[in-house]
Structures are given as C-alpha cells and as structure tokens.
Design brief:
The protein has 384 residues and is an alpha+beta fold. It is built from 10 helices and 18 strands.
C-alpha cells in the first residue's frame, strides 16, 4: 500500500508480538517494617518498597560500609588479610556488641573482618577505621564520600559502627544499593557474610543474621538494632540464577525481624521471575531508508535485556518500535536510529535504544535522480 511522504515521515510505531508478563496483576504485600525495600539483584527492579527514601538510623547495618572500604583496599593491595591492626583504648572501651579484642594488642585483618561481620563488633569496627584513616571521624568522612560515589543519595556517616548519632542517617534504598555493590564488586570477600560462627579470644559468637539458619538460600548481609532505629536487617538470598536483596528497619523484635525477612524474600521469589527479552545484536525490525544503496536497515539491540516481572501476568505488556522514517542515508553501523518501548500497567516504560545493524551508503547522483523520479511517479516506497 502506497502512503504519502508526510505519513511516512511521521512517527512510525510497529507493534511486536512478544509475550511477557505485566506488573498489573502483581501480588500485593504489606510489612510491619517502618522502612523496607526488596529488589532483584540482577536487574535492579524494585519488587516492593515502603518509605524507602526516608532517612533513618541504620544501626549496625552501617558496618556493611565499614567493611566495604576495607574490601576495596584488600582488592587493590593497600591492605592484606595478614596485616595486623593495633587496638586502641577507644576501640577497646567501646560498648555494645564486641569482638572482645584487648587494648594494646594487634589483630589480623582476617580476624577483624570476621569480628565485624559475624560478631558485629563495635571494637573491631573502630580499630579498622583507625587503621585505614587514622581516626574514626576521618573514616566516617571516607564512608560518606564513598556513599555518594556509589549512588547512596543523602547518606551521611558519623561513625564506623552505627552508634546513635542524630546526623548518622541512610535510606533503605541506599542500603540496598550498598548491598548490591558489595556483592557485585567483592565476590571473593562476600562469602564471609555467610559464616555462621566466629571464635576470638576463646569466645564463640554466632552470626546475628537469622536467615542464615533457615534453608532459604540466604548468605548475607547484616543486622542492626538500637532503641531509636528498631530492629533492622539488610539481607540477600540466592535461589538458582536469581538473587534478591532486602532491607527492613524499624521492626519491634528479633523475632519479627526474622519472620518479616523470611516472608518478604519468599514472596519475592514466589511472585516474580526474570524474563530474558533481548540478546545483544538481535534484529528487532527493519527501518525504511531514504536515498540509500539498500531499501532498509536492520534495527538491532546493543545489550541483553532481562526484566523482572510478576509470574502471573503475561498478556498485558506492549512492546513497540518507534522511529521517524524513512531514515536518510548515509547510515553508519551502530548509529542510534530508533527506540524499543516496553510498557505495561502500573510500571514505568522501559526504553531501549535500537542501532543500525549495517552501514548504508548514500546513493550516487544517478541513483538519487532515479529515486526522485520514482518518488514523483509512484510515491515513496513502504519497504513492504
């Protein structure tokens, strides 16, 4: 069917028959947590949130950032597991959860990290902070700088332990970002978070993360509790190829923290799944070319696309290709020409750039004259 040039240049929208799930029929869930967020590790898709951007006291969940900075230094060689850290009187005297290090002693980084992660030792956290930055205050500045660098919006650290301070605040979303970055950047060190017990100075202590003791795939990260913060948990669990990250805070008891953590993660695994939609270089459509040495150019994706969606909704999503055509030659392979838009009820549209899958040269003078005559006689080609 012939069309006018005006109609061909108008935005061209083509509907593709791709069956993928929709968020419209996603199951709903509530939580007693004051702040909460649940997201998929691989895609970053948020499955559930409640006041996730409210600034809150993170208590000992702070220590994820404390060890994050140590992990960076272990990775680049500024720190080694067998390095020995001196224990100051400040570290030794600190109250709350303790590793029970002795003032004036020296403790390996290997033990200090387990004292922080497994035993939640405030003394170990301060000793590590002083070893890295000289003072805990200087270390807290490094923590705040690192938070901004990795996208933890509005996070402010005042100490290495999570000790109550009115200016020591993080969001649940920020903690989820921190957990995701910790897992992504430091797989060789992340396994420490799954250790259930650690013994130091002949004192054996169990990991405070209650989900490690349940057969649910949990392998990290950190609990927290103060009177002001309530009971909190930043957790991750992996089942098959999927990993979820959960942050809850402001719960009323150890028992509620455990039950809510388990319930929300189970819900996330049960109700959602990851769906592979696109592969790198996959041809999605053909775009009509104007005055080129070929009538059309393939539109291809640059990256793999995986979306996290409810398992039960597969029929309401719409995927469209949008571009203004015909596209004038010359066209260079890799040039962005169109957009793939993925839309569904109750979710923001996902837009993916589509690129030229081949070079298209501009016709020579004779070819352009021929095409112009053809256009005058027959109208523009539709490529059909």
């Amino acid at each position: 069917m012939r069309q006018s040039l005006h109609n061909r240049i108008a935005a061209l929208v083509m509907f593709l028959a791709i069956a993928v799930p929709s968020a419209a029929s996603a199951a709903k869930i509530e939580t007693n947590a004051r702040e909460a967020i649940l997201l998929d590790y691989n895609t970053g898709q948020v499955l559930f949130e409640k006041d996730a951007d409210a600034l809150m006291p993170p208590a000992s969940m702070t220590k994820i950032m404390t060890v994050f900075l140590a992990f960076e230094r272990l990775l680049d060689g500024r720190l080694h597991m067998d390095d020995e850290i001196p224990i100051s009187e400040k570290a030794w005297r600190k109250g709350g959860s303790k590793m029970f290090v002795e003032v004036g002693s020296r403790v390996t980084v290997h033990d200090i990290l387990r004292g922080i992660i497994v035993q939640s030792g405030n003394d170990a956290s301060i000793a590590l902070a002083e070893a890295i930055a000289g003072t805990e205050e200087a270390f807290a500045e490094l923590m705040t700088e690192k938070a901004a660098e990795i996208g933890m919006k509005d996070a402010t650290f005042r100490n290495a332990t999570g000790w109550p301070d009115p200016d020591h605040r993080i969001t649940a979303r920020g903690l989820a970002i921190l957990a995701r970055e910790t897992i992504r950047r430091f797989p060789e060190f992340y396994e420490i978070f799954s250790e259930e017990t650690f013994t130091y100075n002949e004192i054996k202590q169990g990991n405070r993360n209650p989900l490690l003791y349940k057969a649910m795939g949990a392998d990290g990260l950190k609990t927290g509790h103060t009177e002001n913060a309530g009971y909190g948990l930043t957790a991750s669990a992996k089942r098959g190829d999927r990993r979820l990250i959960l942050v809850v805070n402001g719960l009323s008891s150890v028992r509620e923290r455990s039950s809510e953590g388990e319930r929300l993660l189970d819900w996330g695994f049960r109700e959602f799944d990851n769906y592979k939609l696109l592969e790198p270089g996959e041809v999605i459509d053909q775009a009509t070319v104007w005055l080129g040495d070929r009538p059309s150019v393939p539109l291809v994706t640059e990256n793999k696309l995986i979306l996290t969606m409810p398992r039960t909704a597969r029929k309401e999503m719409r995927v469209t290709v949008e571009y203004e055509g015909p596209i004038p030659a010359p066209i260079v392979k890799g040039q962005v020409l169109a957009r793939l838009r993925i839309a569904a009820p109750d979710m923001e549209d996902r837009v993916v750039a589509l690129r030229a899958g081949a070079d298209v040269a501009k016709l020579g003078p004779f070819g352009r004259i021929t095409a112009a005559v053809g256009h005058l006689v027959w109208g523009p080609s539709t490529g059909e």
